[in-house]
Amino acid sequence: MPSRLKSLAAAASAAALAIGALTTVVATSHAAPAAASGVGGNWYAAAPYLMPLDNDPPDPGAVMDATGLKAFQLAFVLAPNGGGCSPTWGGTDAVSSDTAVANVISAIRAKGGDVSASVGGYGGTKLGQTCGTPEATAAAYQQAIDKYGLKAIDFDLEEPEYENSAAIHNEIGAAKILQQQNPGIYLSVTTAGTTDGTGWFGKQMLNEAKTQGFTPNNFSIMPFDGGFNGAAAQTSALTNFNSILQSTFGWDAATAYAHEGISQMNGRSDSGEYFYQSDFQTVLDYATSHHMARYTFWSVNRDRQCSPPDNNGKTSGTCSSVPQGDYDFTKYSVRFAGSNPPTTTPTPTPTGPCAAPAYNNSAVYVGGDQVSYNGHTWKAKWWTQGEAPSTGGSGVWQDEGPC
Question: What SMART domains does the record point to (predicted)?
């Protein structure tokens, strides 16, 4: 999200203090958190972003108690600042030796919640830029999945990475591999928003996903810091993005909305746009009425009132710069999770006239069964459920060619 580079830079000097503050909130543990039983997909779809090590993070348990929230989107997993293909938090804290974020996750899970990890973001060096191949990129992210028992990941693909076609190839390829290797994992892809929906690089990213035959739980745009001001501009962008999804993947409008999400910015944006509680409500009404797949925002760290409330007309990484009560904006995420639970991902519409029935992620298939998926006909070699047709994975599916 466009606020992140400034947020990360401003918070770098306070990282040690933030880590210390967090470890006083949660019990110190040097073990990785136990894998969660998971929360519903509606909570991963509504999880707002939280920087657990920077920008004066609030106590997640207090947020949960005050709002009813059950999931957070932890940001950001990046490549090491010095280069390499191993996951870190913010480019500095290696996932392999982390205890601070693990403690945060444990505390959230102890209260019946869960987390998703967001990889990428604005600024920093991304693993897709340094790992070289989709397979190596996926292996790096798998380390974080295994370390924390993750059931959800957000691929936040934006500047400068999404201008690098090789890096985007690696990221989309890694997401596809993770989808195959971790059945049932919740995957979102977040990218920049424009008044037309998304820009040239966002469209190229969608085309890369189409080329690789990858369909996440949702593609989300961030309609802020791009000439937006208020909910009307945002819902207009969502309508335009829906048309882009239709034209790219051959979906009808309803299927496109079922794969579409929004990530907002609460309060004052970096470019001086303002989004108030009433704007969040209007966008929530749009999202629920169109049965959209995701509704989130940047960030919980900012979901509190500044002093003075307008922060002297400046944008902050730790408060919203608008009048508000604590966690006013987080409560809209909770409402989305309760009112519009996207429990399943609709099957992508085939790109050609396929005779075989469309693949259904919840159906059971046995050897010889045929399905259509992403414009190809596939035949099951043996019993399978929940593994989308591909040439990878367990090898259960045989590609019988385009329809």
Answer: ChtBD3 (SM00495)
